[in-house]
């Protein structure tokens, strides 16, 4: 579904964010991107839809050569890539339904967007998606009246309304508590399975990555240093990825106990967490 070949990115500042990254992502696979701060995770996700222009390399979404598209073609290709953001990127003063419908804007012309007129089948699909993410009773609420987890569900429904082939997910749980984080990751995983959607998820929390991803890619200083099954990610590999960082396997068995929401330390999965 997605092929990344020899991708490198150097910013004008001289920062080399990615070096020779090669990834092939089959249809329906959920990949977690892990690595310390500055490893290049966000840059990699943003190169896929060319919010960041790659310096070198090729990216294909199915047969579409993303890196060779002109701006009109790129706009069309971006409709096939749903984005989910850490800060949800909702419009606060609009309702939940209007926010979800905004996922369709890439398909509609200027005047239709301006007047916010949507075809009936799109509205019906938006209802269906809101039901699927558990927000059917929040349809008319303003976005700023929702909790963080509910806001992220709106973001997920909006991304799915585009009917994408791939989800690009940037730290979806960074602002959420541990329990809500698991619910959101589980929802993303289930939706990908239901729709045979591929996803790349940039995530700091190693335990969540191990629990919910089919595959983990570890980045360090812009290079892929691990690419494999979640259970192959052992202590030595985590030390390699996170270097000198003082990380500890999480041994706490109380799954619902609050952990620091925005910890920079990676956490390994506890034995109980594996069952959630
Ligand atoms: N717009 C930019 N201009 C210049 N350098 C940048 C820019 N964005 C990122 N970088 C640099 O590129 C490197 C990779 O950054 P990136 O944000 O992709 O890492 P990350 O793994 O997503 O980090 P974090 O987990 O902290 O978000 C870093 O050295 C960063 O300083």
TrEMBL record:
ABC transporter domain ranges (all copies): 2-246
Gene Ontology molecular function, alphabetical: ABC-type phosphonate transporter activity; ATP binding; ATP hydrolysis activity
Amino acid composition bias (Acidic residues), ranges on this chain: 246-257
GO CC annotation terms, alphabetical: plasma membrane
Predominant localisation class: membrane
Subcellular location: Cell inner membrane
InterPro entries tied to this protein: AAA+_ATPase, ABC_transporter-like_ATP-bd, ABC_transporter-like_CS, ABC_transpr_PhnC, MetN_ABC_transporter-like, P-loop_NTPase
Pfam families noted in UniProt: ABC_tran (PF00005)
Coiled-coil segments on the chain, per record: none
Source organism superkingdom: Bacteria
Protein name listed in UniProt: Phosphonate ABC transporter ATP-binding protein
Membrane topology: Peripheral membrane protein
Organism: Marinomonas profundi
Residue stretches of biased makeup (Low complexity): 263-276
Lineage: Bacteria, Pseudomonadati, Pseudomonadota, Gammaproteobacteria, Oceanospirillales
